[in-house]
Amino acid sequence: MSRKKKIFFSLAIGIVLSGIALYITFKNIPLEDLAAYLKTINYWWTVPTVIVVFTGFVLRVIRWQLLLGPVKKTSFFDAFHPLMIGFSLNCLLPARIGELARPAIFCKKEKVPFSKVLATVGAERVFDVAVLLLFFAVVLATVEINPNLDLTFGKYHLNKATLERVGMTTLKLCLAMLALIALIIARQSHTVIRRAILQSPKLFFFLSNSFKENLREGLCTKLVYVFDNFASGFDLLKSPKKLALCLALSLLVWIFSGLSYYTLAFGCPGIEISFLEMCAVMVILCFFISLPSVPGFWGLWEAGGVFGLMIFGVSAKEAAGFTLANHVFQMVPVIVIGLISLVITGVSVAQLGYDAKIEDKAAGGKSLD
To answer: What is the pTM of this model?
Structure first.
């Protein structure tokens, strides 16, 4: 399947899921009541909210600088611009293309292999999931959720048991991901995997030696090159001190994210929940937007926010009004800053994927013996 077809397919699925989520979330909320609520919000609270949002992204940049250390030492702004462009593109384009655009921009500017930088983004996501799971565990242990609460989402039901089940599933996936990373970066297992890739043509014993040699040189050596680069992107995880620092930064990133939600709530009538409860809403919202959606996560963001707030007794109208306002003021600053970074760097988004592919393909031809 071509890249264009994959993007179209992802966008089609996202439109369907987002449309269903929007319909289910707002079908019982009169638009007149929602509009009236939005007028009652004290929008002066958006100023500190945007400041907190921006601070969270500054922390993300510092964390990515640290993760990039083994690949290439980089300045704050050399990391800042690709990161903000990536998040901005996630808000504007389908298929979360910003996740690939960020390493592509960095490798184009800094002349380093794409797969190495991509691994740092993967490590970043591992830290994010780990901290979100920590938040989720703290919330389930300390925040009282009515065991009889049962909110309907289409044919699905959202209750405490569902949240615990989703949390356990995510925890298992996170542990599996950590085990895979450990295998990749451990010297002995890394050597075994590398050797297995290079020796795999021997499995085709029924083919000629020349064909197997061509397969080894044409495909296996390139796979090993990508594998080596990807593994080197996780080198920072071998340092306990740097690992601890990344975990601390990740914790701060999500504390500031929850704080940005909590700050806006001061200007929204009826949103009277604790900081930990707001963090629970944020985690639930993150579970929702992990599904395919239209650019900007419209629909799934609203569904996650509304149902998360309703768990803590907020009415549907007030939950919908807060979630809509929060969505806008979380996204708009990111989009604006990302577009400014795009202008400053002079990067052509359309050329990014092609350039990254060419750079790794050219380097992949090097000898790996």
So the answer is: 0.78
